[in-house]
């Protein structure tokens, strides 16, 4: 139906344009989805108003049709009454009065025919308009269903977006931590301690070497004394 296309079709095209614009500039998923729900809700309100106007026009046409039917019936009754009066007058010999009421009956019949023609032309037109109204109502029902689905999916998508954002923040926090293995710092500390331990051991060994040298020198003194004693003993002999 052209009327349906001009109402719901135009709104549908507008919604698609709004959705594409939102997706193109989507930075905050939650804000974008909330705006989408708001826009779709407003579009449904516009559609409901347009459909209400269409229904109002159809109901006015139906009222006109009812009035035309009643008028056709009324003029039919008037024509019948005038014709009956004419017959009564003609039977009584009043030809002039009979002709007068026959003329009124013809006028009433002309009016009846005119209103019947209006009824005949209006009935299929109003039937088609009522069919369009039913399609528009069904379209509104579909739009409300889509809005409910959008709200449900919005909650799910927002939850997923928040979870993804939280995961991204965790990953960012992890990447901001020093990637160096903390055990490597312990290894460096351990190497430093080993160096200190080795230095202590080296100093001890150094001191031990000095003592040994001193005792070795003492031994050499003892040997010299023994040599001198034995030489003296030989001389005494």
Q: What is Rg?
A: 57 Å
How far is the N terminus from the C terminus? 155 Å
**Main sheet record:** none
Q: Return the CATH architecture of the largest domain.
A: Orthogonal Bundle
In CATH terms, what is the fold-level topology of the largest domain? Helix Hairpins
CATH class of the largest domain: Mainly Alpha
Mean of residue pLDDT? 79
**Class from secondary-structure proportions:** mainly alpha
The total count of strands amounts to 0
SS summary, helix count? 4
The structural domain count equals 2
What is the string of SSEs from the N terminus onward?
HHHH
Strand content: under 5%
**Oligomeric grouping of the chains:** single chain
Helix coverage percent: over 70%
Structural write-up:
With 237 residues, this protein is mainly α. The protein has two domains: 2-176, Helix Hairpins (Orthogonal Bundle); 185-237. 94% of the residues lie in helices and 0% in strands. It contains four helices and no strands. Helix 1 packs antiparallel against helix 2 and helix 1 runs parallel beside helix 3.
Task: Note the main attributes of this structure.
237 residues, mainly alpha, Helix Hairpins, 2 domains
Summarize the SSE layout with pairings:
Layout: H1 2-24, H2 29-91, H3 95-176, H4 182-236
Helix pairs in contact: 1-2, 1-3, 2-3
Summarize the structure.
This protein is mainly alpha-helical and 237 residues long. The chain is built from 4 helices and no strands.
